[in-house]
Amino acid sequence: MYPDDRRYTREHEWAKREDGRVRVGITRFAAERLSDVVYIELPTVGTEVRAMQPFGVVESVKAASDLYAPVSGRVVEVNADLLEHPERINQDPHGDAWLIVVEPANDTEWDQLLTAEAYAALVAAEGA
Amino acid sequence: MNAAWHSHRYLPMTAQERDEMLRAIGVASVDELLADIPAGVRLSRPLHLPPPMADVDLLAHLRGLAERNGHADRLVCFLGGGAYDHWIPSVVWHLAGRAEFYTAYTPYQAEIMQGELQATYEYQTMLCELTGMDVANASMYDGASATGEAAVMARDLTRRNEIVVSTAVHPHYREVLRTYTRHLGMHVREVPYEDGVTSVARAREALGARTAALVIQFPNVFGCIEDGPALARVAHDAGALLITAVAEPLSLGLLAPPGHWGADIVAGEGQPLGNFLNFGGPYLGMLATRDAFVRRMPGRLVGATVDRHGRRGFVLTLQTREQHIRREKATSNICTNEALNALAAAIYMAAVGKSGLRQIAEVNARRAHYARSRLCAIPGVRAGFDAPVFNEFVLRLPVPPAEVNARLLDRGILGGLPLGLWYPELADAWLVCVTEARTRAQIDALVDAVAEVVTR
Questions:
Q1: Tell me, what's the ipTM?
Q2: Which of A36, A39, A44 to mutate to test the interface with B (most CBs of B within 10 A)?
Q3: Is 0.90 topped by the overall pTM?
Q4: DSSP code of B135?
């Protein structure tokens, strides 16, 4: 259910390392909890984000939630497609509906993130 | 204090019931109940009240007190400055006063109240047409606080924290703007007026990379019509938004609406649309903006939709912006609205219609211009500024304006606003308002009275 090629935050974001950069999205669990996503607010390229600080907002028909950065660094790519088609977050949260790509400021934060196994345990506890 | 206990036929609680309640919560007296309130702030003597009166005497007494106010029903009103004495068609409050509207100050379990929601939807729609904007909310407290909300919106939209406001914006609006923004880490700077309007050149200098918005009033506090398109360009060139405050929305029956010449947010006061002067409140805050900004808009929004059977219905929409869902991240913590005042405005606009609104606006302008030219013909009286005006204008008087007002009051006339109160450089300036509710005879009487007062 939760791919083990990446790490996770307690706030339900995923982070995937790609050639020194980190691709960020929200988990299927978060997408399902939100229900139909209708709006998303993302930073612009060049913005500095900080680990576990909000970098954007995802809004569904019933809630609005902050998006937390898994790692600190500079935003180098933004999935502009989502601004027009926020519903893709419900369709493919672990794939096409990634949010941003960050050039991390350091390597130390990565180890704080949850493994797929740990995250699955967290979700199981929260879902219960 | 242990006040004597008076039983009264209109107060349902008896002394016995009071004592039972005190016993139930385990205190011996009202004094003990209130023991947490420091003695220093408690009144330690009975209230200064006259002895009981018979109903008839009481009503006469209160009526006498009320009549000590000079009000627009008794005096002939030439006072504007943010509150306007307009004629209200009787249909407006005949309908708005119906119990099903009147008793619900805001819709609870809103979707059940389809009539109320539809009225609000119509209000929003007409407000969009009036301002030339895409989306309007369903009312806020008043024009000044709506302007403050607009400034916060501009900060969120631009991620800049400075507001540049023209000194030709009503001083009360500017004061509220400061109050609204003070604790949000925002800065308010002022740009001066020249000859009654906001200086475009000075505005260009004042705007910078940190400016979220330029705030102007249209028509402004002097009744003058700003060069809106030029000020919009100046704001946009700096990457800032243009916020336009409209204190007299009837002017938009005649003037090009702010949305058509580049305003990004229109804030304003809806009192002139079918609402009484109400001694300064409750009033009706208007807020309208572009579609792209809707998620940063505070307050209530009603949308139209269809149910599962395809029937038209109305719903509160985009509520995730609001404080009951988004808590401290809400666009605003404004938590009530002026639904009844908005309803009155909707009925007013529907009753007079598009062409009616234009006609009323024309009558306002014609009568104001007639009054202005006749007053300016009085020796010693001259126009304050050359800029075009709608229904308010500034005069410079050879006698202190406050003194003129005092003499007019003796004749049953409520005079204009002495601007020296707020603008020291305008100590001899007098802001006069003439609406469609003023007759030719009343205007002529004002002219005669002013002539007499200033030439004697």
A1: 0.73
A2: A39
A3: no
A4: E
